[in-house]
Design goal:
By secondary structure, the protein is α+β, with helices and mostly antiparallel strands. Helix content is 21%, strand content 34%. The chain has a domain of 114 residues: DNA-directed RNA polymerase, insert domain (RNA Polymerase Alpha Subunit, Chain A, domain 2, Beta Complex), CATH 2.170.120.12. It has five helices and 14 strands. The strands form five sheets. It has a four-stranded antiparallel β-sheet. The two termini are 27 Å apart. The structure holds zinc ion. Zinc ion binds next to loops.
């Protein structure tokens, strides 16, 4: 079946949509958004001076996790770049830092070689420098994917759940037990009848099925999935969705070409 997507809510950092497809495709899409869409992140650092309380390794780890605004049109993946992966302005950006304490160093203190490739937020604390302590470094960011390291993941949360089909049968006597027991307020009473008002809220806890003495309620699995995605800000979340779909398509085409019978 052809997968269908219906967008319910869209912001720069949040996306809520319904996907109509198989469970296998829903899970593939979730994984693709997390691990196959490239973003920029700091990958190595030259420390010229670090007299702060934190070791180089810990600082490097913290700096690597700072989300960076990513322009996918501007940069190549290092292995596909004209430089052959050695590093050039087409595949990497340098961030410089030269600061003396006392000062709390923030992500916004890094000076980028490219004015458009900068940290998404400038208020992420990196390290606190005391009187006389100094930090001098050059951090190099490049494109990568979440498959390699979580710092390249464009989404901080990416989840889905099944939107079930809830059917109220003829035997319903409108006792309202299900209305009261449902923790998600799925049911409502309208003209003395029970109606399924918010099926997308259902978590399939089956409390309503258990409480119904008339056995009038059926909760069935469907092929509709409610996705909730939260971005890191490196890319707009909708772009993450589009890139993930492209990545899945090219993987599928690759497979087709491998198994093609001559
Ligand atoms: Zn390059």
């Amino acid at each position: 079946m052809e997968p269908k997507i219906e967008i319910l809510e869209e912001g720069d950092l949040k996306l809520k949509f319904i996907l109509e497809s198989s469970t296998a495709f829903a899970n593939s899409l979730r994984r693709a958004m997390k691990s196959m869409v490239p973003t920029m992140a700091v990958d190595y650092i030259d420390f010229y001076m670090n007299t702060s309380y934190l070791y180089d390794e810990i600082l490097a780890h913290r700096i690597g996790l700072i989300p960076i605004k990513t322009d996918l049109e501007k940069f190549n993946m290092p292995d596909k770049c004209v430089c052959g992966g050695e590093g050039c302005p087409n595949c990497q950006v340098s961030f410089r830092l030269n600061i003396e304490g006392p000062k709390l160093v923030y992500s916004g203190d890094f000076v980028s070689d490219d004015p458009e490739t900068v940290p998404v937020y400038d208020n992420i604390p990196v390290v606190e420098l005391d009187e006389g302590q100094q930090l001098m470094l050059e951090a190099v960011a490049r494109l990568g994917t979440g498959k390699e390291h979580v710092k390249w993941q464009p989404v901080s949360a990416c989840t889905y759940r099944i939107i079930p089909e809830i059917v109220i049968g003829e035997s319903c006597n409108a006792c309202k037990d299900c209305v009261e027991v449902c923790p998600r307020n799925v049911f409502e009473v309208e003209d003395e009848k029970i109606v399924v008002k918010r099926p997308e809220e259902c978590s399939m806890c089956m409390e309503c099925v258990e409480v119904c003495e008339q056995s009038a309620i059926d909760v069935n699995e469907t092929n509709r999935f409610l996705f909730n995605v939260e971005g890191t800000g490196a890319l707009p979340v909708k772009r993450v969705l589009v890139e993930a779909l492209k990545a899945l398509k090219s993987k599928a085409e690759e497979l087709t070409s491998i198994v093609e019978i001559e």
